[in-house]
Amino acid sequence: MLDAHSPNNRSFKVVIIGAGFGGLAAAIRLKQKGEHDFVVLERADDVGGVWRDNRYPGCACDVQSHLYSYSFAPNSNWGYQFSPQPEICDYLRRCARNFQILERIQFNTAVRSLHWSEERGEWIIGTMHGEYRGRYIFAGMGALSDPKIPALEGMSDFQGQVFHSARWPRDVNLKGKSVCVVGTGASAIQFIPKLQPIVSQLHLFQRTAAWVVKRGDFAIAEKTRERFRRFPWLQQWARFSIYVQRELLAFGFRHPIVMRVVQMQAIRHMHASIKDPALRRKLTPRYTLGCKRVLVSDDYYPALAQPNVHVVPSALARITKHGVVGSDGIEHKVDAIIFGTGFQVQDLPYSHYIYGRHGKSLADVWQGSPRSLTGTMVSGFPNLFLLHGPNTVLGHTSMIYMLETQVEQALRLIKRAEQLDVAIVEASAEAQQRFVTWVDRKLRGTVWVTVGCKSWYMDRTGRNASIWPSYTFTYRRRALGIRLDNYEFRQPSK
Question: How many whole angstroms separate alpha carbon 127 and alpha carbon 114?
Answer without folding.
Answer: 9
